[in-house]
Amino acid sequence: MNAHLTPVIAGFIPLLDSSVLVVAAEKGFAAQEGIELKLIRETSWANIRDRIVVGHFDVAHMLAPMPIAATLNLTSLSTSMFAPMLLGLGGNAITVATALWREMTAFEPDRLGEPASTGRALAELIRARREEGKPLLRFGVVHPFSCHAYELRYWLAAAGIDPERDVDISVLAPQVMADALAAGQLDGYCVGEPWNTSAVLAGTGRIVTYKQAIWPNSPEKVLGVTEKWANTNPDTLAALLRALSNAADWCADPDNTEALATLLARPEYLNCELEVCLPALTGEMQLDQNLFVNVRDFVSFSGGLSAAPRSAHGKWLFGQMVRWGQAEKSDEASASVERVYSSQLYCDALELSELQDDDSIQLFDGSH
Amino acid sequence: MSGGLSILVIDDNKIRASIIEQGLRDAGHEQVILVHQMDGLVRQISDINPDVIVIDLENPNRDRLEHMFQVSRAVRRPIAMFVDRADSGSIEAAVDAGVSAYVVDGLKRERVKPILDMAISRFRAFSKLTEELEEVRTELADRKTIDRAKGILMKSRNLSEQEAYDLLRRTAMKQSRKIIEVAQSLVIASGLLDD
Question: What is the complex's ipTM, to 2 decimals?
Fold first, then answer.
């Protein structure tokens, strides 16, 4: 405990992309910026949301759509928020039960997980199942307002599968996904690492595609902060953003990957085996029992400009909320979303010139 | 009590759940149902048709539950969080105590507030109980350690029990440490020497 440091309390969920926060606290990056970063592990996103709203947390590790949902009053305990920094890009994958994959292979899906091809195979299988009068396939996502939900739906819809009618999508905590798949309660899911790898290693799941293939280098988790806290503590927030940017650069250095995995595996963080953390960090992903592929930037952390939120990110996420009936489109809502995903706080803190938004988002099917 | 509210308590901690149940029953609520596991919860909730749901914050299934309220046609009506958005005091108290509640939309705040208050106070009481239990456990463990330290001194220095305790106490005072700390060091040191 150092009396000269300003305490900042951050809530996090034990996932691979809590790395930047963990490293900032553990490797001295927060202290270098005059901050004592205290991390509190949580068990649900609902808790993260509630505890940031009542002020237990100053900042939090959040699903990229959560600050938008909170600002637009789409969930209980809503409040205006900012997403001043991206804490991780990529990192999710879609896994199906090995039995389902075997049925899909009749329709020749790409073995390396190309999303259009695996989606088409699933669509053909779903058509065949419908003719045979089989029940709907059940998929899991971690939260209604999550990139997982939007990626899964986007992938399904691009293949002509109606996510509302042709499958049954429910919400489950990430740490129980693999068990639910093994127990036959789910046929597939979209979740962050290490929960895809754990099903592959257990022999119960097969990775059919992944976030980096669906929307390359797209935001996954953000730092969430209430507008109120940001306005009351501008200097602390700026210092925190610099610390997190440096921590992200440390995470991005391949020389530190092993050390990062060892740190994350510790009981107070992910509390898992080292082998489970490593594949996503190195990009050496194992899609099934015998198939290894190198996915460049499967999950990526880096500071500087690449961690700046962009209004195009916010726009895409809000677009998905509208598409799936979670939000109503309005000019007012769009303006709010733009504020949530403004790069200004981040760029000011790091003395970067503010981003010109180039709307360069492109997904696997060519749309944006 | 006719027209009473039905209350569903979801808590993995069976002891805490029954403490809450008892509290609610004492307050005149007769329809209190406890659920310890989340399997088949949608069906259970649609069968039970609760007016109020109380859930502990350690439960990793809150996200699942909230999603279910959003989309499920089986659940009677959309269920809103807590009593009232304006009632931030209650919300803070609940989160502090480690409990959350969901309430069927349209219920009058006056009917629900006492239930939430009850849950909050029982959750608090339970954590206090757990802390006290922990203290008692530590105290017992401390006493055992001191006994072992005394035993070591009695054997190695050929002291009586009282003399051994006095020596520990004097050493602690001299070094401005607690007796238990001196005893712990002694036990650890003697363990090392034995090896």
Answer: 0.84
